[in-house]
Amino acid sequence: MSHALLAPSSAHRWIECPGSVVLSKDIPETTSEYAEEGTFAHAVAAHCLNNPDFELSAGFVLTYEDNGVEINRSVPEDMVEPVLTYVNTVRYMTDGATDIQFEQRIDLSDVLGIPEQFGTSDVIAILKNELQIHDLKYGKGVKVFADKNWQLILYALGALEEALLIADIDRVRLVIHQPRLNHSSEAVYTVEELREFGEEAKLAAKTIMVALENGCGAELNPGEKQCCFCPAKGQCEALQNFALTQVIEEFEFLPPEADLLKEDLESSISGVPQIDNSRLSVLLGNLDLISKWVSAVRELAMSKLLAGEAITGWKLVEGKAGNRKWADAVKVEEIMKSMRLKKEEMYDFKIISPTTAEKLLKGSKRKWNRLQPEIIRSAPAPIIVPESDKRPALDLTAKAEEFEDLI
Q1: N vs C: which end of the chain shows fewer Cβ within 10 Å?
Q2: How many CB atoms lie within 10 A of CB 306?
C-alpha cells in the first residue's frame, strides 16, 4: 500500500510541526514486527466485520495485503480476544447504521487542498444525524485519546461531504479502541467545529508544500506527540536546541571542554537539588521528549557508522554475544534421550503463572476461584504522572515505612 505525503496517521506530527515533513522527506520508510502485527490485526478485524457470521478462532489463516505483498498468516491465540472486543464494540455502537464501511480509502485532496492525498479509515458509519469514525489501535504501549486526534479528524473531514448527501449530519463522533489496554476514548464535535479543524490542517499542508516546492525549510516545533515517531528527530536542530536548553539551564556551571572529568560530572549532579519546584515541573514535562531525542541521536549515529561513515572520536566494536540456546530443541532432546538422561535432568519444570492459569480455567469459574486466594502481588511503586492523569493522587499521610522497601 502506498502512502500519501501528508498521511492522516502522521497528521499529529505534520500539523503541529510542518518542518518535520521537509526534514524527513529523504529518509526511507521503515517498519517493525509491531507495525506488521498491527496491520494483520486490522485485516483480521475487517474480515470479521465484513462477515457477520464468521467465528474467529486461533489458527485461522487469513490472506491479506501489506504494502502490495500478499501474505498468508495464522491468527495467534492472544489476538482473538482483543480483536473480538473491538469488533463487538463497533457492532454495538453502529447498530442500526444507515450506512457503514470498513477499511475505506478516503480522498483527502479537497480537505487539504493538495492532490493525491488519501487515508484509510477502519470504520465509517452513519446513524441518523451522526457520523461515526472508529479507529483500532492494536499496540499496547501508549494510550491514545480521541480529543483533537488529527488522524480521526481528517478521516471525518474526508467522509463528511458524502455523509451529508445521505443524512442530515449535525455531529461527528470519533472513537479510539485499544482493546489490549482495556482503553477506549470518544470525542464529539459539531460539523462547524470539524470544518474549523480542517482550515488548520489545510494551512499546515500549504506551508509544507510551499517549503518543498521552494527547497526551503518550514517551522519546526518540537513537542512530545509530534516528535515521538518522527524519523528525523535524531538530526533535528530544533529538538536538539530544545533538549539542550532544558538541560543547560540547570547545568550552566558545566565546563566547556568536551572531555568532562568524573569530578566535573559529580559536581554538576550536585546542583540538581537546587532546582526549585516550578522549574522541576517544566523539566518533568519534557524528560520523555529529551530521552527520545537522545535515543534518536544514538540510532542515527549507529546507522551512519554501519553505513561506513566516519564519526570523529567514535567507532563500532563487537558487542556482547546473545545468550546461548539450542539450534534445534527436538534434535537435542533426542540426543539427550540417547544418553539415557532422566527427565528431571533434561527438563526444567515450573508451575504456570496466574495469567496462564486463568486462561486455562476460563471455562471453570469454580476451579479458578479455588486458586485466586493463593495469588499475591508486590505493592505498586509510586510513579510521577501529570495532574491530568485520571488516577487519584497518593495519600501522603501514609507512614513513610510503607514505602521504605521501594527506595
Answers
A1: C
A2: 9
Rounded CA-CA distance 189/154 in Å is 13
DSSP conformation class of 188: E
Computed from CA positions of residues 221, 224, 229, 235, in that sequence, does the dihedral angle turn out positive or negative? Answer: positive
- Residue 136: which of 206, 47, 196 has the closest Cα? 47
**Residue extents of the structural domains in the chain:** 8-214, 232-306
Q: According to the model, what pLDDT value does residue 271 have?
A: 52
| Low-confidence residues of the chain: pLDDT under 50 | 1-2, 252-255, 257-262, 265, 269, 399-400, 403, 406-407
Q: Rounded to 5, what percent of the chain is helix, strand, coil?
A: 50, 15, 40
Taking only the tens place, the pLDDT of each residue in 84-127 is: 999 999 999 999 999 999 999 999 999 998 888 899 999 999 99
**Grid cell of 381 as nine digits:** 511503586
Cell digits of residue 179: 482493546
Does domain 8-214 correspond to CATH entry 3.90.320?
A: yes
Q: Which of 117, 109, 149, 110 is nearest to 133 (CA)?
A: 149
In this prediction, residue 247 carries a pLDDT of 63
